[in-house]
Structure formats: C-alpha cells, structure tokens
Write a structure and sequence with these properties.
112 residues, two-stranded antiparallel ribbon, globular, 29% strand, Nuclear Transport Factor 2, Chain: A, alpha+beta
Length: 112
C-alpha cells in the first residue's frame, strides 16, 4: 500500500465537492450534479442502487432528480476519504435525512 501525506487543503477540497453535491441535490440541479463526475465514476443512490459510469449516473439523475420530492432536508458528510494517488480519492459520503419535525434518518456508520 502506498502511503501519502494528505494535506488539509486536500481534505478541504473533498469537503467542497461534497458540499456541491448537497447544494445541487437540494436545488434539483441535475446538470450541476453531473458536472462533478468523471466518466468512470461510481455512485450509490440513497436506496442502495449502484450506478457505474457517467452515462448510467446521468440517465438515472436526469430521470429522477428534477421531479424528486421529499419532506425536510438532506445533508451529506464525507465520513471516510482514502487517497489512492495524490490526484485520486475514494470518498464514502453519508446521506442524512432531516424530517420536518427534527427527526433524522441516516445510514449506519462503518465499523472499520
């Protein structure tokens, strides 16, 4: 395994991308959301569907996001970041649904 020095600026850059995911999802901005993805990206939907490649992600997003409806808000948090190379990071993002009454529903945290 290659170990790299991770700078605070690298972690901040990941946090900025995650914040853009949150912002574009809330705004139902499919094209802004899709602009974040590399052609070989992988995305797991809130319901666990795995989409591989920008074409699959785009097809799903354009069909679902503009007409999505939800009560409350959704937030996104980078809970694990692993730099594979200085310019490539694998990031696990946890999505949390905040109901109008204040209750939250979130994916479980990883134990590893």
């Amino acid at each position: 395994m290659v170990r790299m020095n991770t700078e605070a600026s690298d972690i901040e850059a990941v946090a900025e991308v995650v914040a853009t995911v949150e912002r574009t999802q809330r705004a139902k901005d499919a094209e802004g959301f899709l602009a974040l993805f590399h052609p070989d990206a992988l995305w797991t939907t809130a319901h666990g569907r795995v989409l591989i490649g920008l074409d699959a992600i785009a097809e799903f997003t354009r069909a679902v996001l503009p007409n999505a409806s939800w009560d409350g808000e959704v937030t996104y948090e980078a809970v694990h970041t692993q730099f594979l190379r200085p310019d490539v990071a694998a990031v696990k993002v946890r999505q949390v649904h905040h109901a109008p009454g204040g209750a939250t529903r979130r994916a479980p945290r990883s134990t590893s």
